Tryptophan--tRNA ligase (Halobacterium hubeiense), 517 residues
Amino acid sequence: MTDTDNETDGEDAPGADSVALDPWGSSTVSDYRKLFEEFGIESFDDVIDEVPDPHYLMRRAIIFGHRDYRRVADAMRNDEPFAALSGFMPTGDPHIGHKMVFDEIIWHQQQGADAYALIADLEAHAARGLTWDEIDEHARDYLLSLLALGFDPEDGTLYRQSANRELQDLAFELGAEANFSEFEAIYGFDGETDVSHMQSVVTQMADILYPQLEESKPTVIPVGPDQDPHMRLARDLAERTRYFKVTEAYASVAFDDDERPLVAAAYDARGEYAEDEDQPRCTEAADWLREDADLAAAYDAEVVESVVQKLENAGMEPLRPRIRFFDRQATDEAFEALIDEVAGEKRVFEGHVDAFDIDRETAEDLALAVEVDHGGYGFVPPSSIYHRFMTGLTGGKMSSSIPASHISLLDDPEDGYDKVKAATTGGRETAEKQRELGGEPDQCPVYELYAYLLAADDDEFAERVYEECAGGERLCGGCKEEAAELMAEFLEDHQEKREEAKEVLADLDVELDSARA
């Protein structure tokens, strides 16, 4: 979840073809499309039309994917509560790669989000071995840049992990829902992994859910794809802490998630096999599924056999849609309150309640309200958006440990100018070939500077640079000169604003010096 040094970028990094996502490792993503298939990340194109006035990082497909962002967009459009949070591991100077995440948090704050930004000092110490003095030095720089770029501290929350007792208490509670085998499977932890490193993961889970401690609400976490393991675990933990699980059901027997679509198909086709279409029997549905070769071929054979067996076990019971509330870990009082709140026809069992006159969305809202009223967290599974990594100025990965590969937000403007002038480009070997064949802006770190930063909100400018490069009108020398001048101007302006932000930071209730130092 924490934005790190962007050290996982670059085509030459180990693991580029395997799409192994390691929040602390050297893996990278050479084909972002594989993330949709292998990890269930959805394309941001599917949701951008639902976002009011989308940020330019969204419009330019730099933000390329999401998990469950639609609920955040809905809250944004309907002026309902939602939150945005990201963390920053202070392992070096903040640089232009980090600016993307700063901008994403600030934009969501401007759209009405409760905005949170944190310094992941416990993670920096446990996972990267930084001393507390080093962490303190870098933490101040991250906060100053965040404020200089427009974060409103009066309307947002800033904290560092080690100084937030409420966060650490939440992490302790979440730790009861996780285990080592899970960490081993997700992160590759083994017998050599420090306990403090594992503890820092649980702390990050608490960070992600922290905006919901006082009020359940959609929460978005902007991250690079290497942080997706954290998001998957956080979503799982949010579900595990809930009092109730709400699912669709069709009979007293329980069907698994991968079985319900097949049962739904059988119910929808009841006119083909049921003696009484208004009251199809489970055994009738089982016989129909066994005989329908086309439908069976569309599903896994084991799933089909399992559904048929369960339907046969249910016998002559009617196949009838209903909403099922499972008692996951509710108190007795909460379970009784839920029963009372379910309107219309219902059937109460030892571990669940079936409701026949309520839709899924209403049921979810009801379960949440009862849980919160009876002392539960009521966490909404957190959403996430995923941005592309910036390529290093020298090609390959951008890393804080390779000064020439990145531009620090603390760099002297003249040094920023020089780094851009020395950057690798996507140009051809000669000016003649560039004019004839055009450049390759999609492979150019300098063009990325325009798209990610220098063109700011001016889409026409970014598109013009792209088209002039691809068409051979723009040569690398002039392009780099323009980019270098814009970068120097940006750094000069940003550093002036950092100076102004020092007074603001001094007045905030944020721990800048660690008590552990």
